[in-house]
């Protein structure tokens, strides 16, 4: 799902800036114990407690 979202964001940016070079790289959550780093939007922290 994260790659699909990244692709959609890239497409939206290209609509406004057709000559832009865009790369979105999604990093997996590696340390569930340190979810403060991801912020409140992290959906993984509640699934792995």
Structure overview:
With 49 residues, this protein is an all-alpha fold. The protein has one domain. It contains one helix and no strands. The longest helix is centred in the N-terminal third of the chain and has 15 residues, at 2-16. The radius of gyration is 14 Å and the shape is elongated. The protein starts with a helix and ends in a 33-residue tail after the last helix. The model has no long low-confidence stretch (mean pLDDT 78).
Which short descriptors sum up this protein?
49 residues, mainly alpha, 1 helix
Mind telling me the C-alpha Rg?
A: 14 Å
Stretches where pLDDT falls below 50 for ≥5 residues?
none
Number of helices: 1
Q: Find the structural class using helix and strand composition.
A: mainly alpha
Would you count the extended β strands for me? 0
Distance between termini?
Answer: 22 Å
Strand content: under 5%
Instruction: Count the domains.
Output: 1
Question: Biggest β-sheet, characterized?
Answer: none
Q: How is the topology of this model organized?
A:
Layout: H1 2-16
In short:
The protein has one helix and no strands. The protein has one domain. The chain has one helix at 2-16.
